[in-house]
Amino acid sequence: MIQYFYTVLYKRKVWGEDKVNSPENISKTRQPSSRMSILLFFILIIVVVCTAAVAYLNSKGIDIKSISVRDVIANGFFIGDKDVYEVTGTLLRHEDSLNSEFEVHKSYIVRCTKNGIEYLDRNGEEQWIYPVSLNTPSVKTSGEYLLASGLESKDIYVLSGKERKWEKRLDYNIINANINSAGYVTVLHKGDRDKSAVSVFNKQGVFLFTKVLGETYAISSEVSPSGKEVLINCVDTSGISINTGLHLYTISGGIVSGKTFEDVIFPSIRYLNDDTIVAASDSAIYLFGRNLEEKWKKEISGKVFSLDIMKGKYAVFAYSDKGMIGTAGHVLIVDAKGREVADYKIGQDIVNIAANDDFIAVNTSKCVYFIDVAGRLRGSYTSDYLINEVKFLGSNEALAITKEGVIVLKMN
């Protein structure tokens, strides 16, 4: 058909067969105009290209019905440096790694001990150290910020690279603490009469408010990406069943909304964006709206292992699913509307996952698999040591944390 259009156009333009006054060129059946022929030609080209695109996406395991054209273009499903990367690993041994917490901050490897926050380069060489005093140290990063605290410690430290933003000695022992990409900090602690409480600080370390939770116990808390709201996740064990309460407050402490979930606990809950909250229980995964209404839910026959956020707009869940032939591991990628973008299946148990803007690292304790947002396997690494956790060090680099030290993984 393409050849036909070329022939028609060629004859019309070169031999002048489109002259109306030439009797020999007037056929019994009226021929399409040259303008119509060109239009049909381009329509045919579009159909061929779209058919090839759909076939390509299907070959990569991408369900075209679950994603939009905008998703395809924005996420570069047709673009990649290469299909598969060779992944190499270099072990950096550290003494007393079991009593250290490792993180990644601004392309540095961060090691937090009870006595200091150490910034290391990719060769494990110390670049800078900040003295601290922490029991059972904990370190977390988000965006430009790093937060160091400790279980049953009173001190909290917030840094941005090598710059100390603020530090504070609190009047109570810290149970848990969190920081968002805007630098807002939430601290879980005991209030009056040993009641559970959550205190909130802004990015300058200024105290904003404290919420005492009465008979319920806070297990996590987070400030929204915009810094306008605070989410508190707590459990109530006073009755026969264990219930979860999700509470939203303004950044000044005013109540926004709240909801109780019976016979369920959310060990993992995160903001995807200001309008969407991602949560996981042992047997289900959820998307909630800004007023805690259920936007999407998926029941799991196995167990949910881990969740993370990719590119600030995708929720990534790792879970097992029990079927007729045993248990299969899944990494499910879902957008803010609850559309399932990709589902990567793996025949191994998943310990946890980590995501950056380009890849998802899937840790099975002995292997790390790197997949992209389309659910395509882009590289893998097998370790001689048991891997506890994986964190991204850069776009194509990651950190595998073991009891012997850390392994720097590079996708070549």
UniProtKB/TrEMBL annotation:
Q: Which InterPro entries match?
A: DUF5711, Quinoprotein_ADH-like_sf
Segments spanning the bilayer are 38-57
Q: This protein's superkingdom?
A: Bacteria
What's in the keyword line of the UniProt record? Answer: Membrane, Transmembrane, Transmembrane helix
Keyword hit for Membrane? yes
Q: Which protein is depicted?
A: Uncharacterized protein
Origin species? Acetivibrio straminisolvens JCM 21531
Q: What is the lineage of its organism?
A: Bacteria, Bacillati, Bacillota, Clostridia, Eubacteriales
